[in-house]
Write a structure and sequence with these properties.
alpha/beta, Rossmann fold, 12 helices, 22 strands, elongated, binds MU-OXO-diiron
Length: 398
Amino acid sequence: MSAIKISENVYEVGVQDPDLKIFDITMPTEYGTTYNSYLVIGEKVALIDAVKKEFTDQFFANIEEIIPIDKIDYLIVNHTEPDHSGAIPALLERNPNIKLIASATAVPYVKAVINCEADLTGVKDKHELDLGGKTLTFRLMPYMHWPDTMMEYLAEDKILFSNDGFAAHVCSETLWADEVPAEVDLDHQIYYYWDCIMRPFSGFIRRNLLKLDDHEIEMIATSHGPLFRKNARSIIDKYKEWTADKSEGSEQISIFYASNYGNTEKLAIGMADELTNQNFTPVLVDATNVESDRVKELIESSKAIMIGTPTFNGDAVKPIWDLTMHFSTVYSIGKKAAVFGSYGWGGEGTKLVAARLSGLKLKVFEEEFRARLIPSGDEMNDLKSYVERLAQYFRAGK
Ligand code: FEO
């Protein structure tokens, strides 16, 4: 696709990658993607974002339909993931006088991308760049998608350049969301992108989104997929809905467990009964028979999480390890957790799972509860006093 005018002296000059089958190793991309980039031309010229390295030649050709590369004054680096930064070294070779502008957080990342001397400025939130007739206001948006990420608002044209935010991996004939063919189901693709890319950072994103209330936004120009020129606010509202804190005010405790001979299950049921007595709402979940979407939903909606695992061969069991893979796919940082399980001799499984959850930045109760083989009456009494201590931990602070 060639350069396309999106407003007066504002052009989309990015590239298409219709054959991309998978993004970031884990995300299938049925409709390929695009790497969008924008030229904003005032008395000075700014280029917003670059593209993936493999598309450098097409990128340069698109830019030069509008303006020679040596006339670019600024490159705005919104995010340093290689799909947007790959062409920067080649761009600097063509025009070493370009001034780079990134978020203050991004500065070391940019240096690690270019590996050469350059005029590089790290900006704070609300910093303005006056291009002469075009004014960019930078809004720092950490974790939309990386800590480095920022967006710009172009006041004269009411355009938000949102980088990965509000994007979709959709490559089609048109640049505009309102013209994407119905069979693509763009609404689903926008949700799918949010689910895969943005959902793990929901807690950061819901705070970032408030910054956009400062601006009258008529168009959202993303870095992947189509641009929104009609009802652009609605996509911001969708993100607000999706990133809302689902556990606010919740007394739900999800108890995920795996059990071969029924011993860890007996502990799980005992935990649920005692948590009920403590006025929590436990949800028992067999980790060997639960869908990923349900696990993600339960993690997000629970006040705290419990995991029960037996110990086999000095380890926790595979369904429990598979379950722990879900915590980094949603916003679970700081969520409280506890671990329990039945064991025969070593009982290492609970310690390994507790360490894994701590590594994922959950706040894990310092005591694990373990019972040897078939839980005895004494051990079930111990469980009751354990849950009393655990309940205090779950209720304390945040
Ligand atoms: Fe489109 Fe996070 O890169």
